[in-house]
TrEMBL record:
InterPro entries reported in the protein's UniProt record: GDSL (IPR001087), SGNH_hydro_sf (IPR036514)
Record family assignment: Belongs to the 'GDSL' lipolytic enzyme family.
Extent of the signal sequence: 1-22
Top-rank taxon: Eukaryota
Official protein name in the record: GDSL esterase/lipase
Keywords, in A-Z order: Glycoprotein, Signal
Pfam families: Lipase_GDSL
A GO term, aspect molecular function: hydrolase activity, acting on ester bonds
Length: 206
């Protein structure tokens, strides 16, 4: 049986982080700031759900049953790569941006299940089906970060994120899924690849 590439990547990342952390190289990280989609969302979509997305399956078992014993808003029955990274660094799971009253001293998670690289209005302008139909794109998450930045820095100046690990999760896959959900062919989606890649590149630079 072949081991899935994702599992191999997870083992590699965690092994590297644990080795670096035990050697003191990563001990300076005191928080994690995460962006992404379902591969990194630890519950933001669930916070958003009602009444926008009633009947969200993520709120029910079997999601979460393997590790947590109850649904957590993760799109899995266990933990995400982000959870293992936090554990390897000795950090708690980062608070959700959309959770009210969160303390962001240990970081913040902006990731949302289904988040595309391109904006919702642009995708809908192409008559594409976007699921979920909410403003959670890479650009939106970066705007949230900019809004939250003053409270995160709290007057620390340019070095306020010197001890923060930034994790940029997967983007782009949901854009292509929108084309498939709208009965578009691969050839019809292909011309938009440069725009999707450019959106991700600009997001990384920001």
């Amino acid at each position: 049986m072949r081991t899935p590439h994702g599992a191999l990547l997870l083992l590699f990342i965690v092994a590297c982080l644990r080795g670096a952390y035990s050697g003191g190289g990563w001990s300076r990280f005191t928080s994690i700031i995460s962006f992404g989609d379902s591969y990194a969302d630890t519950g933001n979509l669930v916070m958003w759900a009602d009444p926008v997305l009633p009947g969200l399956l993520l709120k029910n078992l079997p999601y979460g049953e393997t590790f947590f014993g109850h649904p957590t808003g993760r799109a899995t029955d266990g933990r995400l790569v982000l959870d293992f990274i936090a554990e390897a660094l000795g950090l708690p799971s980062m608070p959700l941006y959309l959770a009210r009253g969160s303390n962001f001293s240990a970081g913040v998670n902006f990731a949302v299940v289904g988040a595309p690289a391109l904006n919702l209005t642009y995708l809908q302008g192409l008559n594409l089906t976007v699921n979920p139909p909410i403003n959670s794109s890479l650009h939106d998450q970066l705007v949230w970060f900019q809004k939250l930045k003053p409270s995160l820095c709290n007057g620390q100046g340019t070095d306020c994120f010197g001890s923060s690990l930034f994790v940029m999760g997967e983007f782009g896959g949901n854009d292509y899924i929108s084309f498939l959900l709208s009965n578009r062919t691969v050839e019809q989606a292909r011309p938009y690849v440069p725009q999707i890649v450019d959106s991700i590149s600009r997001g990384l630079e920001d």
